[in-house]
């Protein structure tokens, strides 16, 4: 299994202007049990550049950056920072070496003020009062220099996500970070916020800081980086100047073969309306209105895409349709049945033929500690196929699971294995098998390929299209624009809880969609 | 005036009952604000009560008793820390285990060492116990009207630990809100990952918090066996650790409201002792058990959100693991 | 990437509890040596005291009966993700139900009619006492660990008041009810076996033991073979997935706690109707807390719980024997051992799990090659 990797000589990047690289990794190797997360990774990042690190889920990018930041220890290899060997055992060492990291999930204390969050760990003395006063002056200076205005006395949990991210960057700069690592920073941002972030990064570069942008979005790499390193299966497979490559070339390096970014499908032949949504309003658990008066129809034989930046109401809309969230207004008519008025929950909706592949597979769609066969009946545990008189029909459950595993090529095909022992792709295939096996009229699908390897992606897309061609209706929610554009026959765009427009993929450019997702309203396309 | 004297005496009793509650609740505050559930207050106090009485009886010095009490309580705190912080064990289980173990350990060791059927020898007032400190002119002030009795009963006439507890409260509040340590402690109880990425050791902070809790519980336990009574008897904490935890929750994990809760709970206790078998106007005899159960009922009502709302530190009870 | 490492299932279920138990017993042995007795001698005396005769084994199983009930109670709540520390109070109140039925009916109804009434009362009262903390957790998010502890104290106050003021036998000093008429006594096992011609030595072991075994079978079927059990386990493992599957976590939590309280109430049958034949103060005697240890050691599975309960029964029975024979040891030593077992099996699990997992990983590696 373990291939021997010859160490490539690392050529110094050009914009360094005689400086040693801001970061140089030499032969970083890391295993988690049987998983070889990083295989002899070597590359360097020139000072004063924005460097992209790109790869699929599970390619080892996050592990690598966590090693640089001292969250994990490498089994072998060296980290050099600004020409000096850095012995990084814990985040403290990384901070001392001038490394700052903005994690995908913010590392903020929600009920602290911005100021308290920034000084945490570098309070400057036993007494808080003096340190806070000094920090305030220093932060006001940094905010001016970098254009990073944040209300210092605001409590963090009251700030919008974009500002919270700014607090994270402020934290790093306050600790005099010279090298800033951003892990998937745009996942939670609106397009405008992303624009702002990229402008901010350019400004940091002008000031001589070095930035590593970890992402799986090709567009971002092309937009903002100077160089890019591609990782696959734990190893560096490609490194180039951004100006000398293209999205397609990078995608092929990421996946390791030519990829069709296009999904093979014929044009849709929409039939009757199966699901009609009227003026739906949904509030989340905190009482915030997340869906504001959504109305649309879903027809047999079509895939309707729901596009939007994460957090604009798509998730809540999907959960309301599935019966998980209760709408505060409006109606959902499915096959003539008024679901809201008759108070039908997820179980009843499944029985009527409304199946749901949830966005968050691990949090919602499966039980990690259960076996595959127990997961294969989640949501269907009360149906006569699997339980009779309150008792579970164990042999039927086992047989059903074996059948689903065969049909969806779930590996290993072991119904007794704990779900957590399967890879993300195989877990997702099992979920898909469970929901499609119930022969639904309408399938709600959220992020069908999140955290799934490319091979499984093509399989899953094929199945979804197959279901459409069999005359079923699909509602697809995805934050991956490419996926929506490739799969959907019609696209609804959501912004701020409202459906702001409808487009046909053939006529929609990514730019146009992006504008709509940013809330810039256009005439009907 | 008779009622007035009664009230003053009741308040004086309240202060004496509240002292170990306050110490233990402060202990719990440090532990819980760092994210470690402190159900072990009961066991740590009980262990300290035994160790203090035993050491005091053997050495003849109440100070040696106090030291032994603190050491024992700290050792138990570290044991819980070892299980919950280092090995990420279930905090509730670890604390219950220690509580149960100590409930048996005290009488077992007492029997083996002193052969008095699970008790420690009676402590002398001289040197082996914390005795009341009478302030200047207290006796004379007692004769004087209103303020005199207050001075004599409420300010004067308590033992050293009572005054220590009174001083530790503002000190604890100051540490929690005005120092670097306090900031980090509050942070680690809310979001340990934030503390970790800020370059501070999560486990280090939690161990410090657990250690402080151990020390304060040690003082509380020593108070029970060498100040409030003269020796250790089986199960002498009698749920005071849980009551202190209830007070901490009632005080919403904040120092001064927690003091209020301790005083309220202590007052009900003192009142129950006074009201035993006394017929009151209108309601008649209130069963003493009902008054004693009042703190628990109040805490449940609070937790239910019927009396305000108690919001616990966000990360409480969750072991911190990096890889996730 | 789970840090403590993963074990093969047999090791997780069988080996790990045994290793933990041995560690706890080693610590206990050290303690016994510390108080100046010989651990080997103590072990021999305990074993003899617990299993040395039919009578001794009868006592052991009588204690085990209590622990099976409370262990099952803790386990059922645990499967729904709830930590029920309130078994002590629920058992206490469940016993009250049994006592009230017996006091009210013993002169009017025959045994075969009183028994089901008492069983319903035991389960009903126990469940009722669990209901309020359960409802508060399910509907208002009140932390069930704290509320059940509070309810233990409230139960204790309530029972003291009832026994001191209300149920006390007139003209008597100690707070106890009158003794039930024999129609409200559970038959002892020796009496039952006597009917079929088998002679057993007299011991407090009674019909409640059989009921405890039946409860174990019921719990197994309920948790692993019914759709309600499926719902229970889903809520315990992943409440969000439960909602997705159309299961209502608050409702499942309520059901789990009601069942838990009802099982804890079973202790009342054994103690009140089986042995004491009257209501008295503090008859659960800490069995509610032993239930935590039993459930942890038994991996929340009825079979494991049975063995763990018998082990603790042996500790209790053997321990009381020990305090007769060894002057430096009293019954409290058993409580210490109990605490050590909870610590080793429940809280320090990872201490043993990590090295064991490493051991297995190494063996697998060398076995499979690279």
Helical element count of chain C? 15
Tell me the helix content of chain C.
Answer: over 70%
Distance between the termini of chain A: 52 Å
Strand proportion of chain C, as a percent range, falls in: under 5%
The quaternary state of the protein chains shown equals heterotrimer
Largest interface: B-C, 57 and 55 residues
Which sheet architecture does the biggest sheet of chain C show?
none
Number of strands of chain A: 22
Beta strands of chain C, count = 0
User: What class do helices, strands and sheet pairing of chain C give?
Assistant: mainly alpha
Describe the largest sheet of chain A. Answer: 6 strands, mixed
Mean pLDDT of chain C: 89
Task: Report strand % of chain A.
Answer: 15-25%
Read across the widest sheet of chain A, the strand sequence of neighbours is 6-7-8-3-9-10
Rg of chain C (C-alpha, Å): 22 Å
Report on this model:
The complex is a heterotrimer of chains A (525), B (324) and C (370). With 525 residues, chain A is α/β, with parallel strands linked by helices. In chain A, β21 and β22 form a beta hairpin. Helices cover 71% and strands 2% of the residues of chain B. Chain C has 370 residues and is mainly alpha-helical.
């Amino acid at each position: 299994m373990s291939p021997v990797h010859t160490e490539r000589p690392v050529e110094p990047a050009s914009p360094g202007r005689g400086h040693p690289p801001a970061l140089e990794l030499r032969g970083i190797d890391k295993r988690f049990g049987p998983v070889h997360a990083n295989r002899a990774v070597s590359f360097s990042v020139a000072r004063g550049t924005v460097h992209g690190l790109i790869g699929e889920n599970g390619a080892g990018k996050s592990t690598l950056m966590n090693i640089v930041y001292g969250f994990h220890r490498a089994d072998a290899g060296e980290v050099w920072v600004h020409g000096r060997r850095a012995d990084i055992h814990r985040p403290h060492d990384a901070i001392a070496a001038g490394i700052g990291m903005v994690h995908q999930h913010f590392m903020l204390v929600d009920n602290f003020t911005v100021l308290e969050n920034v000084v945490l760990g570098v309070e400057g003395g036993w007494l808080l009062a003096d340190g806070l006063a000094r920090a305030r002056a220093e932060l006001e200076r940094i905010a001016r220099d970098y254009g990073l205005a944040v209300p210092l006395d605001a409590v963090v949990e009251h700030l919008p996500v974009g500002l919270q991210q700014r607090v994270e960057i402020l934290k790093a700069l306050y600790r005099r970070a010279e090298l800033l690592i951003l892990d998937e920073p745009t996942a939670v941002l609106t397009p405008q916020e992303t624009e702002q972030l990229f402008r901010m990064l350019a400004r940091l570069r002008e000031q001589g800081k070095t930035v590593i942008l970890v992402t799986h979005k090709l567009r971002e790499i092309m937009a903002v980086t100077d160089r890019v390193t591609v990782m696959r299966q734990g190893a560096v497979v490609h490194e180039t100047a951004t100006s000398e490559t293209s999205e397609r070339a990078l995608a092929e390096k990421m996946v390791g073969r030519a990829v069709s970014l296009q999904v093979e499908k014929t044009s849709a032949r929409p039939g009757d309306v199966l699901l009609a949504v009227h003026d739906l309003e949904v509030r989340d658990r905190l009482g915030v209105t997340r869906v504001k008066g959504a109305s649309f129809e879903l027809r047999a034989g079509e895939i309707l895409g729901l596009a939007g930046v994460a957090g604009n109401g798509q998730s809540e809309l999907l959960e309301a349709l599935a019966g998980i969230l209760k709408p505060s207004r409006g109606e959902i008519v499915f096959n003539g049945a008024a679901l809201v008025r008759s108070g039908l929950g997820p179980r009843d909706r499944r029985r009527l033929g409304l199946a749901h592949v949830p966005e968050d597979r691990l949090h919602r769609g499966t039980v990690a500690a259960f076996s595959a066969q127990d997961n294969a009946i989640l949501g269907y545990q009360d149906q006569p196929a699997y339980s009779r008189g309150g008792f579970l029909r164990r042999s039927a459950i086992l047989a059903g699971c074996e059948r689903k595993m065969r049909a969806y090529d779930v590996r290993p095909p072991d119904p007794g294995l704990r779900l957590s022992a399967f890879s993300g792709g195989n877990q997702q295939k099992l979920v898909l098998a469970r929901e499609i096996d119930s022969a639904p009229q309408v399938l709600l699908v959220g992020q069908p390929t999140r955290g799934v390897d490319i091979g499984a992606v093509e399989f899953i897309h094929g199945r979804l299209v197959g279901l459409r061609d069999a005359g079923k209706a699909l509602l697809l929610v995805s934050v991956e624009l490419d996926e929506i554009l490739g799969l959907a026959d019609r696209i609804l765009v959501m912004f701020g809880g409202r459906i702001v427009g409808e487009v046909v993929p053939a006529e929609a450019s990514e730019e146009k969609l992006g504008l709509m997702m940013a809330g810039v309203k256009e005439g009907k396309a | 005036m008779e009622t007035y004297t009664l009230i003053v005496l009741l308040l004086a009793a309240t202060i004496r009952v509240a002292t170990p509650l306050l110490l233990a609740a402060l202990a719990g505050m440090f532990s819980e604000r760092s994210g470690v559930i402190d159900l072990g207050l009961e066991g740590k106090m009980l262990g300290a009560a035994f160790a203090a009485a035993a050491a005091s009886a053997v050495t003849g010095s109440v100070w040696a008793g106090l030291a032994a009490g603190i050491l024992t309580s700290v050792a138990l705190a570290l044991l819980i820390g070892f299980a919950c912080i280092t090995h990420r064990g279930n905090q509730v289980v670890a604390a219950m285990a220690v509580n149960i173990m100590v409930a048996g350990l005290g009488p077992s060791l007492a029997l083996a060492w002193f052969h008095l059927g699970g008790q420690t020898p009676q402590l002398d007032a001289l040197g082996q116990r914390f005795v009341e400190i009478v302030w200047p002119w207290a006796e004379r002030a007692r004769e004087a009207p209103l303020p005199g009795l207050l001075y004599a009963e409420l300010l004067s006439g308590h033992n050293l630990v009572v005054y220590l507890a009174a001083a530790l409260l503002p000190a604890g509040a100051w540490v929690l809100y005005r120092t670097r340590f306090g900031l980090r402690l509050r942070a680690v109880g809310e979001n340990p990952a934030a503390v970790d990425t800020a370059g501070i050791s999560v486990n280090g902070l939690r161990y410090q918090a657990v250690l402080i809790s151990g020390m304060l519980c040690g003082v509380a336990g020593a108070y029970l066996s060498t100040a409030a009574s003269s020796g250790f008897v089986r199960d002498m904490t009698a749920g005071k650790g849980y009551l202190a935890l209830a007070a901490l929750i009632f005080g919403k994990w904040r120092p001064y409201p927690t003091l209020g809760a301790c005083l309220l709970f202590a007052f009900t206790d003192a009142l129950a002792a006074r009201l035993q078998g006394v017929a009151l106007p209108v309601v008649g005899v209130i069963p003493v058990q009902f008054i004693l159960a009042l703190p628990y009922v109040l805490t449940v009502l609070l937790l239910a959100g019927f009396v305000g709302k108690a919001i616990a530190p966000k990360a409480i009870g969750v072991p911190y693991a990096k890889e996730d | 990437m789970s840090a403590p490492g993963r074990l093969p299932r047999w090791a997780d279920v069988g080996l790990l509890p045994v290793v933990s138990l041995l560690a706890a017993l080693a610590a206990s042995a050290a303690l016994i040596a510390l108080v100046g007795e010989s651990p080997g001698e103590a072990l021999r005396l305990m074993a003899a005291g617990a299993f040395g005769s039919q009578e001794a084994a009868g006592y052991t199983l009588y204690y085990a009966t209590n622990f099976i009930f409370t262990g099952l109670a803790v386990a059922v709540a645990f499967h729904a993700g709830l930590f029920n520390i309130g078994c002590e109070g629920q058992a206490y109140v469940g016993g009250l139900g049994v006592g009230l039925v017996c006091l009210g009916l013993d002169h009017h109804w025959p045994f075969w009619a009183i028994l089901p009434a008492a069983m319903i009362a035991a389960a009903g009262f126990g469940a009722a006492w669990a209901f309020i903390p359960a409802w508060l957790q399910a509907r208002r998010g009140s932390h069930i660990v704290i509320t059940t502890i509070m309810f233990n104290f409230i139960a204790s106050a309530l029972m003291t008041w009832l026994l001191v003021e209300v149920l006390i036998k007139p003209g008597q000093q100690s707070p106890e009810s009158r003794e039930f008429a024999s129609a409200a006594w559970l038959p002892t096992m020796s009496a039952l076996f006597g009917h079929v011609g088998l002679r057993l030595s007299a011991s407090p072991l009674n019909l409640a033991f059989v009921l405890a075994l039946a409860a174990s079978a019921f719990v197994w079927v309920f948790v692993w073979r019914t759709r309600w059990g499926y719902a229970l386990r889903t809520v315990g493992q992943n409440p969000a997935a439960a909602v997705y599957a159309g299961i209502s976590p608050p409702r499942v939590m309520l059901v789990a706690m009601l069942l838990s309280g009802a099982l804890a109430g079973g202790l009342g049958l054994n103690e009140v109707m089986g042995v004491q034949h009257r209501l008295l103060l503090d008859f659960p005697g800490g069995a509610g807390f032993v239930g935590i240890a039993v459930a942890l050691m038994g991996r929340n599975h009825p079979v494991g719980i049975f063995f763990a309960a018998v082990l603790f029964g042996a500790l209790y029975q053997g321990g009381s024997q020990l305090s007769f024979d060894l002057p430096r040891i009293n019954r409290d030593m058993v409580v210490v051992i109990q605490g050590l077992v909870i610590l080793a099996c429940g809280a320090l699990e990872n201490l043993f799990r990590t090295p064991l997992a490493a051991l297995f990983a190494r063996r697998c590696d060398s076995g499979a090659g690279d």
